[in-house]
Write a structure and sequence with these properties.
Radius of gyration: 39 Å
Mean pLDDT: 75
Number of strands: 19
Shape: rod-shaped
Helix content: under 10%
Low-confidence stretches: 1-12, 120-125, 168-172
Strand content: 25-35%
Strand order of the largest sheet: 1-7-3-4
């Protein structure tokens, strides 16, 4: 049974013990891995030594015995490493801040909203992180699903980009409803404006056999813009022949 005062550890202190066998007249010992000053226990053959009376430990790496060891003496170093609970992630705290990188092995499950406006590379950090706006107003906070209604809505996925084609708008539909979506009445603009250069082909207007139509009687192409009808395509202007009403 070892002599001396036993080591008693609290729940927030970790320790390790290193044992070496002394040679005859040895006084200087190097502690593998070092130690924190004043957080070291030194034992010789099971008897605890007193710092400043039996040994000196002042540099964090070596220990000097004030009385030389005999050959075969067992010198033990009990190294204490303080673990502070204050530096841990506390599960019941309402708010915590982590400075530096956080590496997670496994899935990250979040209950609530993830705010990522200041994170560089947020599109790669969060799968499916999309900023949603309507006429410049952010509407994406808290939204988890988008539901597009109507047979004219099509999606084309290319990597992380989704091209969304929505029927109607810019004179391409069959009129704008008056009132709610079940209204009987609708209206059609007499003039339609083309304010960008566009090529009507299979990349944006269906397959080769698709017919491209507009209900506007008059299409005005703004300066420096062009409209090119791709191979195999047909463009029909004023498909409802609304313009005939103005000739009567």
């Amino acid at each position: 049974m070892a002599l001396g005062r036993p080591v008693s550890l609290t729940s927030n202190i970790a320790s390790k013990t290193i044992s070496v066998t002394a040679t005859a007249s040895q006084t200087l010992f190097t502690v593998t891995g070092g130690y924190n000053i004043n957080e070291l226990g030194v034992f010789r053959n099971g008897i605890r030594l007193v710092d400043g009376r039996d040994y000196l430990a002042r540099d964090g790496s070596s220990v000097t015995l004030l009385s030389a060891a005999s050959g075969g003496d067992i010198i033990e170093f009990h190294i204490f490493d303080v673990f502070s609970v204050a530096e841990a992630i506390k599960p019941n705290e309402s708010s915590q801040t982590i400075n530096g990188d956080l590496a997670i092995t496994g899935n990250l499950n979040v209950t609530g909203i993830v705010t990522a406006s200041d994170i560089v590379g947020v599109s790669t950090l969060f799968t499916g992180a999309i900023g949603i706006q309507s006429a410049g107003t952010v509407i994406g906070a808290g939204i988890t699903q988008l539901n597009f209604i109507g047979s004219g809505n099509t999606f084309a996925v290319s990597g992380s980009t989704v091209d969304i084609s929505i029927s109607g708008g810019s004179g391409g539909g069959l009129g704008k409803a008056v009132g709610d979506q079940n209204a009987v009445f609708s209206y059609i603009e007499q003039y339609g404006e083309i304010d960008e250069t566009i090529t009507l082909d299979t990349s944006n207007s269906g397959v080769n056999t698709s017919i491209i139509v507009t209900v506007n009687p008059i299409l005005a192409i703004n300066d420096s813009n062009t409209v090119t009808v791709g191979a195999g395509k047909s463009l029909v202007v004023d498909v409802l022949q609304i313009g005939d009403l103005f000739e009567q």
